[in-house]
Amino acid sequence: TVCFDQGRLQAPAKELLLMLLGLEIHFTACCPIDCVCYPSPMTVSCQAHNFASIPEGIPENSERIFLQNNQITLLLRGHFSPSMVTLWIYSNNITFIDPDTFDEFVNLEELDLGDNRYLRALAAETFQGLVKLHALYLYKCGLSSLPSGIFGGLHNLQYLYLQDNHIEFLQDDIFVDLVNLSHLFLHGNKLWSLHQNTFRGLINLDRLLIHQNQLQWVHRRAFHDLRRLTTLFLFNNSLSELQGECLAHLGALEFLRLNGNPWSCDCKSRSLWDWLRRFRGSCSSVICESPEQMHGKDLKVLKAEDYRNCSGSESLHQIKTHTFSTADRGASKDHHSHHSSKEKGKERGVEHSLHSSQPAAPPGSRPGSLPINYPYVCLIMFINYMEIYLQM
Ligand SMILES: *[C@@H]1O[C@H](CO)[C@@H](O)[C@H](O)[C@H]1NC(C)=O
Ligand SMILES: *[C@@H]1O[C@H](CO)[C@@H](O)[C@H](O)[C@H]1NC(C)=O
Ligand SMILES: *[C@@H]1O[C@H](CO)[C@@H](O)[C@H](O)[C@H]1NC(C)=O
Ligand SMILES: *[C@@H]1O[C@H](CO)[C@@H](O)[C@H](O)[C@H]1NC(C)=O
Q1: CA gyration radius, the chain
Q2: Which parts of the chain span the membrane according to its record (predicted)?
Q3: Burial class of residue 63 in the structure, from the number of CB atoms within 10 Å of its CB (0-12 exposed, 13-18 middle, 19+ buried)
């Protein structure tokens, strides 16, 4: 361990380097060998040094610790102290995190554990009590599931990066405490369904990225709490249908990407078509894969005539059942009760067909919609993409 005494470093090369960087040196504590330390706030920088374990001698009062690009395999209780505010330990080879490693770290704001491909599993208590945590990075960690309660109590979390794992399933209410979450990145996983309470509680969510998954089914109420969402990416999934009702909860939506899905443009697509007609934001193409006569067409440019063969009596019936509340529907023994909930969801897709008797108007001149300023939308989208990619 290299120690400093009243502003003097034992390693002259380091002192020179620090002085070149214009940093004042007032060290009273030790700095681990092969690391660089500087005060206010106390910072320890040990990146890219082939460390196989947490180096010894990290000062107790360190607030910022940079350990990225090493070969560290274990994180245990006692490795860090609760004064820590920022820990970057991405791109290591962490295989195990003791659930007590960050116990009572009430100052921790940013924790970057990304790109540790052999991590694979986390205990439910790992992040317990991190009341100030603002950003949590868990991308490329080989995770295939998340224990229920793992994000419990993280009321200040704003950024949660879970992309490029192998997550197949998200438990109901897993994000329910994340009232301040703004960005949730789940792309590049293996999710195949989104349930009614998957995203419950995310009342401040701004961006939800779920592209590059295997989504086949989205519950019609899956997005019910996301009233502040502006960006939703669902491209490159296996969706053949999505009900308009699903998107109708997203009152603030501006950017929607649905391309790269095998859309079925039969009668059941009518509610999505109808919602898209009314949507004021920017949406990708929605290319139909089936039925055969629609193959290659964009759902967005279909006309009311394309739905003329869809049974009106079916629509009428659906509108009637729609007037029951969820509770009524559960209590009444209506004749849907023999269907699976999935089939039920599909049938209700035509609920909104009441509105679709109006002819489609050209974009920008729809009743009740503001004209879209396309260059402006493109610029905003470009800025959004830049931000998203810079964060990854
Ligand atoms: C990382 O850890 C895994 C699992 O223990 C091991 O198989 C692999 O060789 C390690 N990689 C490196 C570069 O040390
Ligand atoms: C987080 O949410 C709580 C409750 O809604 C609020 O009081 C607090 O100010 C929020 N914190 C941040 C950083 O937005
Ligand atoms: C969709 O995924 C495939 C395979 O992972 C990839 O090659 C393709 O570029 C992706 N498309 C988009 C639009 O990202
Ligand atoms: C509607 O039905 C007629 C007669 O069965 C058929 O020729 C036509 O292709 C159908 N149109 C659509 C859009 O499915």
Answers
A1: 26
A2: none
A3: buried
Strand order in the sheet with 231-233: 36-38, 43-45, 64-66, 86-88, 110-112, 135-137, 159-161, 183-185, 207-209, 231-233, 255-257, 282-283
235 Cβ closer than 6 Å to some ligand 3 atom: yes
**Looking at 212-221, 243-252, 267-276, 323-332, which range is the least confident one?**
323-332
User: Which residue owns the Cα nearest ligand 1 atom 1?
Assistant: 93
Buried b (16+ CB within 10 A) or exposed e, 118-151: ebbebeebbbbbbebbbbbbbbbbebebbeebbb
**Dihedral sign from CA coordinates of 307, 311, 313, 318:** negative
Residue closest to 255 by CA, chosen among 323, 209, 300, 295: 209
The pair of three-digit structure tokens given for residue 260, joined into one six-digit string: 């790269």
309 C-alpha vs ligand 4 centroid, how far in Å? Answer: 6
Asked if 58 contacts 82 with a C-beta cutoff of 8 angstroms, the reply is no
Centroid of ligand 2 to alpha carbon of 194 (angstroms): 26
Q: Both tokens of residue 251?
A: 């009152």
How many Cβ atoms sit within 10 Å of the Cβ of residue 251? 9
Residues 6+ apart with CB under 8 A from 385: none
What is the reported pTM? Answer: 0.76
- Ligand at minimal distance from the CA of 234 is 3
Query: Tens digit of pLDDT for each residue in 344-389?
Result: 333 333 233 323 333 333 333 333 333 334 444 334 444 454 554 4
Q: Which residue has the tokens 């660089």?
A: 36
